[in-house]
Amino acid sequence: MKPSRLLRPFASLEEYFAAVRTLVADLSASGHAEASAALREGFGSLNGLTDGWALFLEAVRAAGDRYGAELTREQRRHLDEVRRVAHRITYRR
Questions:
Q1: Distances in whole angstroms, Cα of residue 3 to Cα of each of 10, 11, 13, 15, 21
Q2: Which of 51, 65, 60, 58 is nearest to 79 (CA)?
């Protein structure tokens, strides 16, 4: 099965959700509890509708803006991947 253009680089929505959960856990384990909590809270907003995706996107952006300078390069890269996919899904682009 070909991955949706919106989900790139993830093969499926399940893979994307797993990556978000992994990032939340990684942030928490590396001492970035506030960033982890912000991302987890936004993730909880997903309800299958566009408004839920928009709330999640806002949370991802806010986490990056507030805590991005404290994160490792790899954590910032993963957060950016999560943000790009959430943006494409929210705006269907």
A1: 7, 5, 9, 10, 20
A2: 60
> Interior CA angle at 46 toward 24 and 80, to 5°?
45
Six token digits for residue 73 = 């390069």
Q: Which residues contact 72 (CB under 8 A, 6 or more apart)?
A: 30
The torsion angles phi and psi of 29, rounded to 5 degrees, stand at -65, -25
Task: Measure the CA–CA gap between 89 and 56, rounded to whole angstroms.
Answer: 11
Condensed to tens digits (0 to 9), the pLDDT of residues 33-89 reads 999 999 999 999 999 899 999 999 999 999 999 999 999 999 999 999 999 999 999
Q: Phi and psi dihedrals of 72, rounded to 5?
A: -70, 165
